[in-house]
Design goal:
By secondary structure, the chain is an alpha+beta fold. The chain has helices at residues 3-12, 14-25, 42-57, 121-136, 158-166, 232-246, 279-289, 296-307, 358-371, 392-405, 449-467; strands at residues 61-65, 69-73, 80-87, 106-108, 111-113, 144-150, 172-175, 178-179, 182-186, 188-197, 206-212, 218-219, 222-228, 249-255, 258-264, 268-269, 323-324, 328-329, 331-339, 343-352, 375-376, 385-386, 411-414, 426-428, 431-432, 446-448. Strands 14-15-13-11-19-20-10-21 form an 8-stranded antiparallel β-sheet. Strand 4 and strand 5 (111-113) form a beta hairpin. It is elongated and about 80 Å long. The N and C termini lie close together (11 Å).
């Protein structure tokens, strides 16, 4: 029911939808230092104001939660039923844009280019148009749908924590900030942080320092170390051997008795470490192959290399390799490390399947690291998130997806986390279509206009079926 009317409405309003996405994408809404009434800076505040003004222009009620979150209600007098959870903040523009500048959105060959076009301003506007469609077609609702527009998803989701400290979650929530068909399972996460201390040793040849990693959730594509007292011939020979073994390339820069070693691999997101080639673990393998003098520092470095060896992306050596049918296999990425003359400080990122918990993951890693001289500083982990694929909510989403796309609807599990991770009945629904790489977080990010339009149509149908 209503499918033909909804599709016709969206086609008629196609260019309006594109224009509204462009309006928001012209605003640099990356997180900036807080100002008065602007918890995430002026860019995020400007974008939130623009989105709420847009919604008010279409006749909707809006609420601003102190600049953290803005909400658009279909009819706040109706019982709460469905929340649609999107975000307006973006990651920094970065370099390498070729089609247009990051904040100068342009439509070309059926694609809308610009930072935020797919993550997540385009899907947010699609959700607004779904509500507008239902309203302007005069389709009666018995329960309310609320569009929640956050402004800090990319930097920790403190906005949503603030919102849910004020409001209860709806009986059903979906976020168009994932992928189709439906993401109903998100792995848990252990962002591990460990340290070890020791007495300095000046005995040559020695490791002076290691510096690697940029963020806990990023597999490092580069890693650096400084060694002292080794012949360049030995360093070059070992570099060739380790490059052949690991696929990581090593650049050597001698300076006096020291040499800086740069390991060059391939970066990746920590939720999919198998897609990269970890420069840090490659560098550790290289360091441990060198004839360095015995010391407590090197003893610990060798233990570390044994606990998280190159190519082990499933925590096998740490004793936590596990898998289940619902969410797949555990992943573990060694992502950050600093070593100097008296301390090791490291971080790793593990995405834990539904079968994992603090007993069989956190405590096992803590024990095995302690046996080798390391103190794991974590006392908890983020548990996995799962909504039943047999629930009426999820079945409705899948049915609408199949009807509007002609593709098979099925539930997905991911290693990443979305806005809905802590919500009892929250899933991710779109807006990335299977086979489309929107270059999220990269240069030339884009949204396929046809996919935004069909997303808006599906969202409208879902509103009708769940709230009508």
């Amino acid at each position: 029911m209503y499918k033909e009317k909804i599709e016709a409405y969206m086609e008629t309003h196609r260019q309006e939808l594109v224009a509204d996405v462009c309006e928001l994408c012209r605003i640099n809404s990356e997180r900036m230092p807080a100002e008065e009434d602007m918890p995430y800076g002026p860019g995020a505040a400007e974008c939130l104001d623009a989105a709420l003004d847009m919604a008010e222009g279409y006749g909707f009620e809006t609420v601003d939660y102190d600049g953290y979150v803005g909400c658009v209600d279909f009819d706040s007098t109706l019982p709460k039923q469905l929340d649609i959870l999107a975000h307006l903040d973006v990651v920094p523009a970065g370099e390498g844009w070729t089609v247009t500048e990051a904040y100068a959105p342009v439509e070309k060959d059926g694609k809308l280019y610009g930072r935020g076009s797919s993550d997540d301003k385009g899907p947010a506007v699609a959700a607004l148009y779904a509500m507008r469609c239902v309203k302007e077609l005069g389709i009666p609702l018995k329960k309310n749908v609320r569009l929640i527009l956050g402004t800090d998803e990319e930097c920790g989701s403190s906005d949503i924590r603030y919102y849910y400290s004020k409001e209860k979650e709806a009986p059903m929530t979906f976020s168009p900030d994932g992928e189709y068909p439906v993401v109903n399972v998100e792995k848990g996460r252990l962002a591990g942080h460990f340290t070890a201390q020791y007495e300095p040793s000046g005995t040559l040849p020695r490791l002076v320092k290691i510096e690697a990693g940029v963020k806990t959730n990023v597999v490092p594509g580069k890693a650096k170390a400084v060694v002292e007292g080794l012949d360049q011939t030995v360093l070059a020979q070992k570099a060739a051997e380790l490059e052949s073994r690991t696929g990581v390339r090593f650049e050597l820069e001698p300076e006096g008795a020291c040499c800086t070693v740069t390991a060059i691999g391939e970066g990746a997101h920590a939720s999919t470490p198998e897609e990269g080639n970890n420069a840090l673990t490659g560098l550790l393998a290289y360091i441990c192959s060198l004839p360095l003098a015995a010391s407590r520092q090197m003893e610990l470095v060798r233990h570390l290399e044994a606990l998280m060896p190159h190519g082990d992306v499933h925590g096998t050596a740490l004793g936590v390799d596990m898998e289940d049918q619902v969410s797949g296999r555990i992943t573990l990425a060694f992502s950050m490390l600093k070593v100097d003359d008296s301390e090791i400080d490291g971080q790793f990122d593990s995405r834990v399947p539904v079968c994992g918990n603090e007993e069989n993951v956190l405590k096992v890693i803590m024990s095995n690291m302690a046996d080798k001289g390391f103190a794991l500083l974590n006392d908890s982990m983020t548990p996995p998130h799962q909504v039943s694929g047999d629930s009426a909510f999820v079945r409705t989403l899948l049915r609408v997806y199949e009807r509007y796309t002609g593709q098979k609807g099925e539930c997905l599990a991911i290693g990443g986390g979305t806005y809905v991770h802590s919500l009892k009945n929250g899933v991710a629904f779109g807006a990335s279509m299977p086979g489309t790489d929107n270059r999220m977080h990269g240069a030339d990010e884009f949204a396929v206009v046809d996919e935004l339009v069909v997303s808006a149509a599906m969202f409208a149908q879902i509103i009708v079926e769940l709230c009508g």
